[in-house]
Amino acid sequence: MNARHESILNHARSRWLWFSLALSLTCLIAYAWHSPSVPPNGGTWLGYTLGTIAGLLILWLMLFGLRKRSYSGSSSLRGWLSAHIYLGTTLILIALLHAGFQVGWNLHTFFLILMLLVIFSGFFGVYCYLRYPTLMTRNRDSATRSAMLEEIAELDQNALALADGIDPKVHSIVLRSIQNTRLGGGVLTQLRARDDSDAALAGIRAALEAREKNNQAAGGAKSGQTIFAMVDFLASGTNDRQAEALRKLIDLLSRKKALASKVARDIQYQALMEIWLYFHVPLSFATVAGLIAHVVSVFFYW
């Protein structure tokens, strides 16, 4: 299979899926075969064995952050990520078998909850990495974000030049719209994918509607519903050159709106791909701290 089209879930012919299934099956067989004189729990020899495996898995999974920086974009990184996903999922079963499916209001259950939060936040991360890169590629339509931003800047300059020859009020509307256009910003702004790039079109529409009302008050007819119909209707109040410039300006602003919406969606998709890490990474370190507390309490205070 071509590496470029290989999913992290079926990397190397799903090697880590099969390894994780084999590990899970081995642990289940050992748990079913084990017959302690007390109810299954973490204090039996099998409980200690499974606990050791689970603890080592947690520490190994934490190494992925370091490996991610060392192997960025390589096949080795995909292999580590595939192992990270499948072994992290297997950790749920091993931890529950280690505890003998016994939970209570104590430090050990708190540690288990932390670990589960890390794993399930990781599931959301997998969903993001499988879904949003495809949406980003489709949204960009073979263009890069920097190229789209450069085109928006060029459209802004051309729009200002056209507005300068139409009317000072139109020029003011376009300039204010450029100054108020915000792409990116805070986390909530990125997630909402708002760009406010249609302010100029709204302003010009409002100005044209005001002129149309004045024409109607003077006994004129009513124009069509679209902004281009309004331009055609009001062309008699301006010279042909201004009317043509206004049509071109509206076309430029419409193109800018479409591009700005694409950039805003691109930023939104990237934010969705990254925001889960603000939960996953701190919870991962909290889980390691919980692991240490769990081990210390078992060997020194249990």
Task: Report on this structure.
- The chain is mainly α and 302 residues long.
- It has two domains: 15-141 and 276-301, no CATH class; 145-271, no CATH class.
- It is built from twelve helices and no strands.
- Helix 2 (45-62) packs antiparallel against helix 4 and helix 10 packs antiparallel against helix 11 (240-275).
- The longest helix has 36 residues, at 240-275.
- It is elongated, with a radius of gyration of 30 Å.
- Residues 1-5 and 219-236 have low confidence and may be disordered.
- The chain crosses the membrane at residues 16-33, 45-66, 78-101, 107-130, 275-301.
- It comes from Tahibacter harae.
- Keywords: Membrane, Transmembrane, Transmembrane helix.
- This is Ferric reductase like protein.
The number of helical elements comes to: 12
N-to-C span: 52 Å
Can you give the mean pLDDT?
83
**What is the chain-wise order of helices and strands?**
HHHHHHHHHHHH
Q: Tell me, what's the shape?
A: elongated
| Beta-strand fraction estimate | under 5%
Taking the sheet with the most strands, its summary is: none
Indicate the low-confidence ranges by residue numbers: 1-5, 219-236
Structural class: mainly alpha
What can be said about this structure in brief?
The longest helix has 36 residues, at 240-275.
Write a concise keyword list for the protein shown above.
about 300 residues; mainly alpha; about 0% strand; elongated
SSE layout and pairing:
Layout: H1 11-33, H2 45-62, H3 64-70, H4 75-99, H5 107-140, H6 145-164, H7 168-180, H8 187-192, H9 199-217, H10 227-234, H11 240-275, H12 277-300
Helix pairs in contact: 1-4, 2-4, 2-12, 3-4, 4-5, 5-11, 5-12, 6-7, 6-11, 7-9, 9-10, 10-11
